[in-house]
Amino acid sequence: MTGTLAAIGAGLAVIGAGWGIGRIGGSAMDAMARQPEAAGKIQTAMIIAAALIEGVALFAVVVALIA
Length: 67
Fold this sequence. Notes:
Layout (H helix, E strand, L loop, with lengths): L1 H33 L4 H28 L1
């Protein structure tokens, strides 16, 4: 039973991270299309935000599998 709940928790963490990174990527593309001169700054901010989301998702998966 706990293995099933851990798998559900890990799956939700991965789905949430995928949704968040997809949203960041889409918003960044929209922003770069509107302001091409700011593409470098937008891309840097996007990569940092995606890395933070990945870190939180990895932490959530580890916690879900340990618990």
